[in-house]
Amino acid sequence: MTVDFSLPADPASAWAAPPDHPLVTPRVRDLLAQVFDVDPDAATAAPATVPGQSRLAGPARDALVAAVGAAHVRLDAEPRAAHANGMSYLDLLRRRTGQAPAAPDAVVLPADADEIAAVLTACVQHDIAVVPFGGGTSVVGGVTAERGPFAAVIALDLARLDRLVELDEISRTATLQAGLTGPRAEELLAARGYTLGHVPQSFERATIGGYAATRSAGQLSTGWGRFDALVEHLRAVTPAGALDLGRAPGTAAGPDLRQVLLGSEGAFGVITEVTVRVRPVPEVRRHEGWRVASFAEGVALVRALGQDGPRPDLLRLSDETETALGVATAGEEAGDGCLLLVGWEGAAEDVTRRADAATAFLRRHGATALGEEAAASWRTGRFRAPRLRDELLGAGLLVETLETAVRWRDLETLHATVGERLRAALDGARPVVACHLSHVYPAGASLYFSVLARQDEHDPVAQWQHAKRAASDALAEAGATITHHHAVGADHVPWMTTEVGDAGVGLLRAVKAHLDPHGVMNPGKLIPDAAGAGLRAT
Ligand SMILES: Cc1cc2nc3c(=O)[nH]c(=O)nc-3n(C[C@H](O)[C@H](O)[C@H](O)COP(=O)(O)OP(=O)(O)OC[C@H]3O[C@@H](n4cnc5c(N)ncnc54)[C@H](O)[C@@H]3O)c2cc1C
User: Is 138 in the pocket of ligand 1 (CB under 6 A)?
Assistant: First the structure.
């Protein structure tokens, strides 16, 4: 049994692997020259980063070696450089401009929960900060090798925790270790006829532990639920001991402590395995494109489907700019309006029933069917985008995204305001701000903004920090969340007090003080420090 996520067959699109041909087509090249006056042919490759000397001295290194074995304490340059930071625009830009943060002093690869406990004990004893590292796809500074006040810092790479521990077909749950990547987890489940069906755009590299630690959302989150909603049970190792949470599918035994670990971003401990709900590999997948007259009309249709049903599993509405960008890069005839994608996956009869009802609803409200091809082309492009971004950065383009969620009542105003603030902040750099709505809830939805502009020649880092701050302040003022699924990392820490209030920050600090009394776990991430600021504000 196989499972098809429509990852492009072409290996150059496998973002983890180096490309064997450029993804900037002649049409995209012309567009970039015309809109941004940049020349993709002038793109330069990112220089290799050479990390400085490791600070891990004899006894500290010996303690780590005793915990996991010498072969799994990597002190050599290449793995250390690769674990210095994540995949935000600023992470990639800093690597290109030789301003990458210091690499971790070692990359440590434990095999299981016992070894993780031994590593954490060694780190507390030897004054070493620990950055849990899954796929390293954080776009908010979540895996930056921040040493904080400690003598050294390690990246704790969970790649060796890569097993499907158990498939319980009666309860329809699977217990997956934290280091499994999305494709590998799906491969193991598909061999038994099941799927997790969690497909974020970072699917090729992101891990089960990363999904849990950041409360990730995938392309089917509207229908199948975001990752945190799929978790029935989890195990974690903290400096204060092990946690085993989620005994039953429902409980009234106090607050749900799984939620303390879901979204904890490595600041409390290490998630070692999760038990998640799975489903049989869908018999049928039907994803379709529709054209609606405007973003406002599309929002009304999506809200009706989200609130009154039939709610599709995939629901995604591009605004006018994002639709036009897609049309222009694909070389299709420009049409007015906005692209709406709807999709269903599951048993054939169920998909037909739900899809037919939604189709009738959309037709009744004047939407035009574009067929399955439009959705297939989106799926392919979706997984090419990260590779394309790498190429565009080298050509002098600013390419970044930011996301939020907001109630329906405020959604259209927020869409307009964030666009205006970003364009004003990037004035003079030919900014283009595109947006789509996805991850639909009864009370609201997520908005995802993509920003393209010319890079500032003198200080491109400050250029984006200025724009990001303007957009983030707009989210805070509007009562929207600072992040719907990218998480807090270091970059969103300055907005956490607005997000959860002083008492909320106090609660997070109290949990950290209990589970991580020495503060070795991922310093500078998630929680504002005592002075109210992150260690690395954007
Ligand atoms: C191109 C691109 C597209 C993206 N698309 C999406 C998307 O569609 N949806 C979405 O939700 N996100 C998306 N992201 C963001 C990112 O992929 C997610 O946050 C993902 O869940 C991170 O998984 P990871 O394994 O790479 O975690 P990492 O980046 O390695 O870590 C993320 C955070 O979790 C912590 N962590 C990792 N593993 C563990 C663990 N086992 N225990 C405790 N803490 C841990 C880290 O310390 C860090 O703070 C995207 C990122 C990129 C670069």
Answer: yes
Cα of 137 from ligand 1 centre, angstroms:
5
- Residues 240-273, buried b or exposed e (16+ Cβ, 10 A)? beebebbeeeeeeeeeeebebbbbbbbbbbbbbb
Closest atom of ligand 1 relative to the 272 alpha carbon? 41
Per DSSP, the residues of 203-241 read: TTT-BHHHHHHHT---TTHHHH--HHHHEEEEEEEETTE
Distance 365 CA to ligand 1 centre (A): 38
133 Cβ inside 6 Å of ligand 1? yes
- Asked if residue 148 lies in contact with residue 129, where contact means CB atoms within 8 angstroms, the answer is yes
Average confidence (pLDDT) over 230-239: 98
Residue 138 CA, ligand 1 centroid: distance in Å: 5
Tens of pLDDT, residues 278-330: 999 999 999 999 999 999 999 999 999 999 988 999 999 999 999 998 877 76
* Distance from Cα 211 to the centre of ligand 1, integer Å: 6
Positive or negative: CA dihedral 277, 271, 105, 57:
negative
Looking at CATH, the fold of the domain delimited by 164-280 is given as 3.30.465
Q: Give the pLDDT of residue 99.
A: 79
The ligand 1 atom at the shortest distance from the C-alpha of residue 525 is: 49
| Helix residue ranges per DSSP H, 24-101 | 26-36, 58-68, 77-82, 89-96
Task: Report which ligand 1 atom has the smallest distance to the Cα of 138.
Answer: 29
Which atom of ligand 1 is least distant from the CA of 134?
A: 30
When the candidates are 3.60.10.10, 3.40.1440.10, 3.40.30.10, 3.40.462.40, the CATH number that belongs to 284-478 is: 3.40.462.40
Best CA proximity match to 131, nearest among 190, 82, 78, 90? 82
Q: What is the per-residue pLDDT across 163-185, written as a single tens digit (0 to 9) for each?
A: 999 999 999 999 999 999 999 99
Two tokens, residue 360? 């009738």
Contact 150, 161 (CB under 8 A): no
Does residue 386 have its Cβ closer than 6 Å to ligand 1?
yes
CATH class of 58-157: alpha beta
Same fold, 58-157 and 164-280: no
350 sits in which H/E element: helix 348-364
Taken in order 55, 59, 60, 66, the sign of the CA dihedral is positive
| Segments making up each domain of the chain, as ranges | 58-157, 164-280, 284-478
The residue whose CB lies within 8 Å of the most ligand 1 atoms, and thus the one to mutate among 202, 203, 276, 535, is 202
